[in-house]
Structure formats: C-alpha cells, structure tokens
Design a protein that fits this description.
Layout (H helix, E strand, L loop, with lengths): L12 E6 L2 E6 H5 L3 E7 L5 H13 L1 H5 L5 E6 L3 H11 L6 E4 L4 H5 L3 E3 L7 E3 L2 E6 L2 E7 L11 H8 L2
Parallel strand pairs: 3-4, 4-5
Antiparallel strand pairs: 1-2, 3-8, 6-7, 8-9
Amino acid sequence: MTISVGDKLPDATFKTMTADGAKDVSVSEVFGGKTVVLFGVPGAFTPTCSNNHLPGYLENRDAILARGVDTIAVVSINDHHVMSAWARFTGGEDKLLFLADGNGDFTRAAGLDIDLSVGGLGVRSKRFSMIVEDGVVTALNIEDSPGQAVQSGAARILEQLSK
C-alpha cells in the first residue's frame, strides 16, 4: 500500500557519504523533529533525474529553505557510492542530502517502488516528492510517468509550502 498524507514514514536505514566515509542514517535521524522535503528518483545519473528533477531543487533550494524547511533530501535505489558521485557531478554536494536506499527497503515499505525491469532497470523508486514534518507526510506528489518531473518537481513543492 502506498504511503499517504497523514502517515508516518516507515522505519528504514539509508546510507550517505560523509567526510569520514559511508554512514548509516535512520529515518528518525533524518526526519525526526524537522521539516524535510524528500524527493525520490528512479535512478541517479538517469536523464530525467539529472536534467529535470534534481536541478529544480538545486535552483530553488534557498526559496524552499526560506519557507521553514530544514533539509532537502533525495532518495534513490542506488548505492551510496553512486549517490555520492551524483552529488559531486550535479553540484549538489553539501546542498542536498543524498540518501542511498541500496536495497530499496524504504521505498518498498513506503509503497513507492515500481518494477522497471522491462527497460532493464529492475525495481526502482517511483518519481515522487513529499513534505515531511517530524516524520509525518503532510504533502505527497507521485508522477504518473517516471519520465516526467512536473507533479514532483520543486515548483510544486514551493506551491505547497506557500499554503
């Protein structure tokens, strides 16, 4: 079942890269007591993710943070090495929190997984965005097509934060 507005995020552990190497971070560490914008992508370095989805969050980072958001995070079913390289490649390092959901545990538990095996990608994350307050989803946007980044883009999140 897909997570909904009003639901608490499922317990899971992500990996992220730090100056000291890979670090496990729990959902409660990332989202507890904070307002976080989380967006999910089918894969780091994929065209829509790299050219359309992530750049909008980088370009609108200051405007999003100015609306009371503590952190902007991106999650993908990729390993932490890929997510770290993607952060460096896109200029997002130290601007967004790049969360590796390597085994897809969080994505599956949230019901946001999609089987893209037909395209050779295996199980991935649906393209989505959400606003999370103290671990509870207050806004959720899921794209109908993984090749688009309209409903889950930064502009939509800014609209929702303005309400």
